[in-house]
Amino acid sequence: MNVVKLDDFRSHTTPLASIIRVGDFNQQFAQYVSQNLIPGRRAVVDSYNVAKQADLLNELKASGFELTLDTKAAELACAFKWSGQARKAEWLEKEPRGALSSTDFDEQSAARIAELAVKNGFHVVLSPSRYVSEGSAIKTLEQDHEFMALLRAALDAAGGKRIKIASSFIGRLSLLGQDAITDRLIELHRTSPADSMWMRLHGLKRDPGPSRIRTAARRLELFKKTELPLVLDYAAGLEPLTLAALGVVGGLAFGALANDQFSDATWVSPSKSLDNSVANDGRQQFARVPGLGRNFSHAELRLMSEATKGKRLLFDPANTGISSFDEFKKKARETALKEGVEAIGGLSKVPDTRRTHHIRTTHLDQNARKARQLANLELDQKRAAELKVRSPETLPKRLNDYAGSLDKTGQVLEKIASDSSIRLTKPIPLVRLGTSIEGSEGSRSQ
After folding, report:
1. Element (H, E) at 252
2. In this structure, are residues 208 and 409 in contact, taking their beta carbons and an 8 Å threshold?
3. Residue 425 parent element (H or E)
4. Residue 85 near residue 142 (C-beta atoms within 8 A)
5. Which of the four, 87, 235, 237, 252, has the lowest number of CB atoms within 10 Å?
6. What pLDDT digit, counting tens, does each position of 377-404 carry?
7. Given pLDDT bands bounded at 50, 70 and 90, which one contains residue 3?
8. What sign does the dihedral 37-72-163-446 (CA atoms) show?
9. CB-based contact 384:390 (threshold 8 Å)
10. What are phi and psi of 302, to 5 degrees?
11. 0.85 exceeded by pTM
12. How far is residue 65's CA from residue 294's CA, in Å, rounded to a whole number?
């Protein structure tokens, strides 16, 4: 008879992965590495940046990083995305003249992707996939999984047998509520060459929504039937972190204030410019407040920082070392990245059965308290007009509403943890590749 020690179960700690998207910020990324802001040592590099970021790649490999290649196939196959930087993907034979179709993903394409991955020492390839729309979801999934088999064969033939494949689902969270789509996706992965599943979900937010947390947890838990680790891609903030605490995902991938939340708005229609922008390039700039988990525009942040006690409440100088808005603006990416990685690292050290309690007390409750304190700031209406802050009177309401949402999310977590009908289990860990560096989080299989 097998005997399970209850204390061992309660103390079991499953590692969680943080995977950082380099994006176009390779110089800053090199600084982050030197500052040890990325202890998990996992990075995603876009296929149009491989040659451009060669020095960084060499440094990352020497530092023991696990490197994932994003082929940007999804963007290349999108009518509103293909003409961007994705068209310079280095595995393409030549720059496309239009969006790629399913027939463009053939053995030749697989061979070129494999060659790029092997030549540059990647450990994982994010398998080419396309945005999944409701009308053609099953067909798209089946075609993309057929190409995954071609990619596996091409990697093996090119000397990349050790290179793993991560599948990629890009679409709306609501699609995972349809049994036909979910069942087919699970069925395909049971026989696919994928070693992990990545999901980039429209509808998943940075700010946690209590009802959305429960719905997302139920839907994502089903994919454990594939026995593959699940990574939420383009996923930073308290909502993805809460799902990690619930044990339904094994890792989060995101950039530094970029590629950290997915919206399909520019995937289904042309992008629209923003009005009343405050940046030189015509786009409004946002940054994440330390210890709050929420983004505000630079103008709103400056306004709050100039209120009495605003700087202390906003920037928490005792812990961040930041004492002014201008200093914060320079370090906004670094601050957001550090906080996101530390949150995952901290959660990863907590026993599985205690993670919902940890996320509530360490993050939700504290962030709600800070939101209410910021809501009580006396804002200068004249200064708001000078900074072109729209409707400054709504700031306190937004902050109080946010605090209320965090409170409700904490209450939902308690109910989920005690609801036997949900039966959440521990996350499936993502096995770390690359060279192990003694003393790093990566050396402990994070």
Report:
1. strand 251-254
2. yes
3. none
4. no
5. 87
6. 999 999 999 999 989 999 999 999 999 9
7. very low
8. positive
9. no
10. -65, -40
11. yes
12. 29
